Amino acid sequence: MNFELGPDEELLIASVREALSRTDTMAAARNALDGAQPAHLWQEAVRGGWTDMPGLLYGVLVLIECGRRLAPTGLLGHLTAVAALRPHADHPAVAAVLPGLLDGTLRAAAAFTPATAVPDAPGADVLVVDGGVVVREFTAQRAGGYDQSLPLGDVSWERGEGFGGDAGFAWNVAQTLLAAQALGAAEGALAIAVEYAKQRKAFGRAIGSFQAIKHQLTEVLRLNENARSLLYYASYAAENEPSEFGLAANAARFAADQAIDLAARRCLSVHGGLGATWEHDAHLYFRRAQLTRLLLGGQAAAGEKVVGHVFSG
User: Which domains does the chain have, with CATH numbers?
Assistant: First the structure.
């Protein structure tokens, strides 16, 4: 099976990179940790048309680029909610919000009970709970401050309207998009580690020429590519092999968590003492890695679901 990206996908990636480059998201993440107002690039997402993706693969490609720059766009929660709502567009509760979500005048988040540490909940207008309930009136108390580039909220509400959605499908979409964001961050951490290894010299040679450094970075690359392959297959399975989507999505999530964890650690290792300083970006990727592995059931739950899918045939 050929998963090589076509011209449309490559053009999307290029446009997302160009749009995100207009904001120094790394500096914004660091400044937010010092008390500045966290940045949010929702309007960039709206201008780019990223709020209405024609398929899960396109959302994955956008989230990879967002993760690479630790860009808070709100799309992890929004695209998960939209995917849950689309098959039920004729339901009155869905019809009342879906057009606004697609054109970006409304922003959504997706919550799964218990609704704590919900990605992108702060500032959202619509909440989709367990893939089958639309909530218009809710409170989202901002949670955590470890990684200001990924806004989280503890959510509460009194009433919502069910539309018969598929909780399992929504959960798998969320896992896939979270994996995409994690892979992007892993690639970002690897990129700055490689660049530093080319420039930093020891004993008259670039440290990247030493086998110990080469092996560290090559292992990160291997895990990144493994996660990428699983992500592309999960995107394919969502539309073409629904019976395999659960396995593919959770496998991609588990692999991406492995990739970002190792990438962040090796990035710190390659930079040595410099990587541990506040001014360097390495700790920002490390923060994202540690937070990601705890969200949406955590890495352990994803691994358990993979095992369950395998043993159930």
Answer: 7-162 (no CATH), 167-312 (1.20.140.10)
